[in-house]
Amino acid sequence: MYISKIDIEGYKNCKLKSEIEFNSGLNIIVGENASGKTTIIDALRLVLRENESSYMNITEDDFFKSSDEKDKAQNIKIDLDWKDLSDDEEVTFLTWCDADFNAKLHFEVEDKKNPKGQYKKIIWGGASKASAFEEETYDCIDCIYLPPLRDAEQRLTSGRKSRLAMLLEHQYTEEEKKENLKNGLREKNESLIDEEEEIKKAKKDINDYIKESMGNVFGQTVNLQFSGTSFTSILRSIKMVFFPEIKEEIPVENFLDIAINSLGYNNLLYIATILAELEAPGRDRNLFTVLLIEEPEAHLHPQLQIKLIKYMEQLVEKKQHIQIIITTHSAVLASSVSVDNLIHLNKIKGEIQATSLAKLDIYNTSKKYINRWLDSTKSTLLFSKGVIFVEGISEAILLPEFAKIVLDKYNKGDKEKLPSTLEEAGVSVININGINFKHFYQLFCDIEGRDLKIKLPFRCSGITDKDPAKKEEVDEDGNKNGKKVEVFPHTEGETQGENTALELIEKIKKSKLARLYSSSLKTFEYDLAMENNIIIMLKVIRDIWPTDGGVHGVKEECKKIIEEYKKPGNKTAVKKHENSITIFNRINDDKNVGKGIFAQELADKIKNEIRTAKEKKEGEGDKDIESIFMVPEYIENAIIWACGGDVDE
Amino acid sequence: MSKENMQNEIATAICKKEENISCEECFKRGGKEVCKGLDKCRISEKTEDQLKYVLSPIDENTFLRACAGSGKTEVVGMKAAYEISKWDKSTHNGIAILTFTNDAKDVIKERISQFNNMPSTYPHFVGTLSSFIHQYISQPFGYKYRNFHGKNGDCSFLVVDKTLDSYKSCWLDNYYSFKIYAHKTFYDYEKERFYINKKFIDVSEDEHLNSGSYKKYIERINKSEDKKKEYTIDDVKKSIITMKRKFNSHGFANFDDMNNIAYKVLFTSNKTREVIAKKFPLIIIDECQDLSWIELKILENLMVAGSKVHFVGDLNQSVYEFKRVDPVNTREFVKCFDSLNLNENFRCCGPIVTFTNKLVPDCNDIKTGCEDKLKENALLYMAYEKEREKELIEKYRAILKEFNIKEETSCIIAKQNSMVDKLLDQEASPSLLISALQLWNFKDAFQKKKALEYAGQHISRWFGGRRTSKNYSCPKDIVSAYKWRIFLKDVLNDCRSKEELINFKKNYSKWHKQAKELLPDIVRNRYNIRLKEFDDNKNRDFNDVFDGNWFNSPSGLGNREINILIPNDSGSNIPVKTVHGSKGCTYDSTMVVSSKNKGSDLGHWKDHWLDGDDEGKRVGYVASTRARYLLVWAVPSPTDEEIETLKQLGLKDAELVKKA
């Protein structure tokens, strides 16, 4: 069996009823801060009684409260569903089963205290409150919680909270052996303490003093012994020490106290202790185990994170009774498992929206593609509020700068204001290195244009090149010579695009959250140039063109064209076209510059000019940010869409 | 296995006795926890037959016939404790030990806990048969088979008492057509027809619909102008089905429905009955003679799916014909079971056993295991005259005194509730509220309780109606039965503080007129202080309730003077119980009071207990097998012939004892 769903309402930061579905085995919950990750984990702990004391005491803080405290939840309702019960589990969990033999557990608290100041909890199983409910069924569920930034040290040293003691307890299957341990320690206790003159003297002194001060009637007698003689307290007094290498024979005195170990390694030792407990012989084989781990990445470097998550993946594959639910902010962690394990969270108007990526309607080939593709840089999309897909490195570098210009312009209008940069808007630009948009868009919409329920619940846009087909070259006589040449259109309607992604545009447009825009003429750089950005682009080429090697005279050529083009009356359509072609050819000449370097330089330039403009603006209001660079409409649309603005369609 | 071996086996398992010593030896050495305070080892005092049952195999369906006073409860408790101690702890399935009353459940639970010192009985279930059927079958699974989709996510059925009366604008009116309420009807799978409850008895639909008054009713509606068609009995029958479906699909069910739902769940879903059978591979039924046809069918379904059952009981003590229980069905059911017998009656002395063996068939083998203290005085009869029943109490007390029997360990038993009320001075006045207010002033807790019951019965009508007679008729919308009780207490106290309401020296009409003016404020006020926050109905409007003819004196009694109850100050400590209430109980002495007339429902000594049908004889048998040393039959003015009959049976005139 596995937890298939949790419904939460009125609890912690979740106001409206929110449904979160889980997969069997491994679940990785990702999402930006305050999206409800901890609320989900806490709800599971509460309902599954991970911590008896927190279960006993519901406090005012557990009820949802808006920041101004005006809006307060009247009830907490948490419902848990399990699916796929085995034959044995159906019997064990009978009183939690509904008529279709799925298990259900309900937890309700009303915001009303009894005279003792406690909230009344209603807990029931199955479909009806009036059916039998066996409390003991809780004993068949083991919920283990590993908090973030955990104090591993405390759990591994001696004391009441010792997790180590639990592991050791589960190693014992026979009462006799427990007795042996107790007796062994008692003997040592007696012999050791009785032989020590110093201790004996201390004991005598205390007892004498008692007799003197309290007399024979009220007096008591004390003995001194090592702490803990019951089985549990012996185990609790055992602590862990470490040696910083894996080695066979290490002298006892060389082990170190874990207080001086690194936080990261202590965390791992703690996790290892818990995992070892799962294998302990004294543990019920059939115990359904939920492991809740919050931010396991804390204190771990990326390679260790990956190693750990891979181990968990194997663990749930081997053991049917274990379900692991992990929350994370780590893109490394998120990208090292199959997308089927990921659950994306988003909080919209008090409701946690959870999307189980396993349940997305993605074509199998696309799923494989996404699994390969979703590396640690790209998986940032899972932590974003919006995303813009681009074809290459140039777009990825330039879009954040364009966005400043686009958003500045947009915010001057009378529409609802947007953030002023992509970072502020939480929008990631993601380079898909090509035109395989069809794979990624399935995360957000159906590429067939159907309206599907399950999708990532935030906006996504993308830009793609029109890429008109090459034309066969025609010689002076009007004959085709079989050579194909680039086409450089003047206007949008002039050519047909050859890019296969273009077919998707209209279908995607039918969806609620996704859009794809294409350049109107040819490619990214050509379209930028044709948008009247000739001078700034030429300046960049001039600046970055190598002085040695390659084509000589390019720097001079640029300088000349800029001067020429600046002259009044020269900015004709013919000149613009001509110069755009020149720019296109120079940038695409990989030997000397390359698109990436050009984009980087242009981005820097725009960034500097925006900064200067902003500084000036405060004093004089001179130069407009808008005029620094003319952003083509398709890019503008993509940025505004991803940031949540209005785009005219 | 020898008796000693059996003792050894059981003691090792449940008392954790060391294997190498005998039970006697163990007891001599101070015994185990379970023997503390006893003068004999708990196990060695058992008869061979009793031990045999404790060790009987649990993979065989078994019928243990246990006569009255055979120590059945102790043996069932020990059997359960023995099996629980040997149960495989690694599984989560268990034994269901089912009784018919909560008292019996508590006794068995207590016995089990004496042997197995555990905080809970999990994974085993000890409870009443109906709580088992409701909680494990009808409630968790029934919704699916009755198209009930739940209220606020909860698919529990609200169990409604079929004997509830409806009145003006009651919620039950939503399930009412052709003058028949859905909560009063139920389908009988055995007879394959619907039954309709008429307060004390259920009648078949044909009987009800073909009665003269009902036929007249149909004629009347067929004559009315706005009728849509000519209605026939078949239309009514169809409407009964429709109403019942609606009633169930809205989440309501009466007790009979709950059994039907459980039956339906089990015979429709193989899977469900298999899982329940796996959860409870052994079901022990105490008092199996009280199983109805449908309950037997439910158990049969679980048996088909793999459960084994142990039936324990005495078919001669089956007295629930009014719940359509016929021990013939049970007898048939256990035919193929392994059969064991406990025929030693440790409760009743020799003369009483000899006497009661004559009352019912098939019990000549029953012998006594109890000391005979009173010899020829153990069986007496006492004559009483009509309307002078209360004199019986004084006479009976005199006899108890004569024989040195404590009043507290004796009991007066009668078949009818009305007779019990008469003997206890609890007769209800025709107006429930007047009775409540009068009884409320009595010191006795029983009478105060009765006062709350009467008040609850009446006042719940002003709250849209109750759903069961339990919890002082707590209305359907009030979520806390406790707060309801407090509310009733407050209302009664407030009423008693008004001179007009406690001065009963007037006629009914005058009292009601005054009450009609005072009650609305009292009820409203108390409701607002204490009850409002526990009311699911947030828009309750008493103006609708306290309007028009909402509170009138009982019809035809307006001019009659109010009957004033006088507290019973006789100082008698003898409890008074009904035959059904005395089931399973043991007293040093009992006086069994026959009803006055032969027309009573199975309550007359001669017409029912001696010469009646099987059920009548069994009622007499149950009532007469409660006493240890002294049994008195109180009979209404016997004729000479009747006196002869009594003497023949071995009963002696109580007057003779007094003279001696």
Describe, in short, the structure shown.
With 649 residues, chain A is of the alpha/beta class. Chain A is built from 22 helices and 19 strands. Chain A binds chain B through residues 79, 87-88, 90-92, 94-95, 97-101, 106, 124, 126-132, 134-137, 140, 284, and chain B through 90-93, 120, 122-123, 125, 134-136, 139-145, 150, 153-157, 159, 265, 269, 271-272, 275-276, 278-279.
Q: Biggest sheet of chain B: strands side by side, in what order?
A: 3-2-11-12-1-13
Weakly predicted, low-confidence segments of chain A: none
Number of strands of chain A: 19
Q: What spatial form of chain A do the alpha-carbon principal axes imply?
A: elongated
Instruction: Trace the largest sheet of chain A across and list its strands.
Output: 7-10-11-3-12-13
Largest sheet of chain B: 6 strands, parallel
Share of residues in helices of chain A: 25-40%
How do the helices and strands line up, and which of them pair or pack?
The complex is a heterodimer of chains A (649) and B (660).
Chain A: E1 2-9, E2 18-21, E3 26-30, H1 37-47, H2 52-56, E4 75-83, H3 87-92, E5 103-113, E6 119-125, E7 141-146, H4 152-156, H5 163-171, H6 175-195, H7 197-218, H8 231-236, E8 241-242, E9 256-257, H9 263-279, E10 288-294, H10 302-318, E11 322-328, H11 331-335, E12 342-348, E13 351-356, H12 364-373, E14 386-390, H13 393-412, H14 422-425, E15 427-431, H15 437-441, E16 459-464, E17 471-474, E18 480-485, H16 504-509, E19 514-518, H17 524-530, H18 534-544, H19 554-566, H20 573-587, H21 595-619, H22 633-642
Parallel strand pairs in A: 3-11, 3-12, 7-10, 10-11, 14-15, 14-16, 16-19
Antiparallel strand pairs in A: 1-2, 1-4, 4-5, 5-6, 8-9, 12-13, 17-18
Chain B: H1 3-14, H2 23-28, H3 48-54, E1 62-66, H4 72-86, E2 95-99, H5 102-115, E3 125-128, H6 129-145, E4 158-159, E5 176-177, E6 180-181, E7 185-188, E8 193-198, E9 201-204, H7 205-209, H8 212-223, H9 233-249, E10 252-253, H10 255-268, H11 270-279, E11 282-286, H12 293-304, E12 308-313, H13 327-333, E13 338-342, E14 344-349, H14 350-357, E15 367-370, E16 379-384, H15 391-402, E17 410-414, H16 417-424, H17 432-440, H18 445-459, H19 470-473, H20 481-496, H21 499-502, H22 508-531, H23 542-545, E18 576-578, E19 587-593, H24 605-610, H25 614-624, E20 627-636, H26 640-648, E21 652-653, H27 654-659
Parallel strand pairs in B: 1-12, 1-13, 2-3, 2-11, 4-10, 11-12, 14-15, 16-20, 16-21, 17-18, 17-19, 19-20
Antiparallel strand pairs in B: 5-6, 7-8, 8-9
Helix pairs in contact in B: 1-3, 3-4, 4-5, 6-10, 10-12, 17-18, 18-20, 20-22
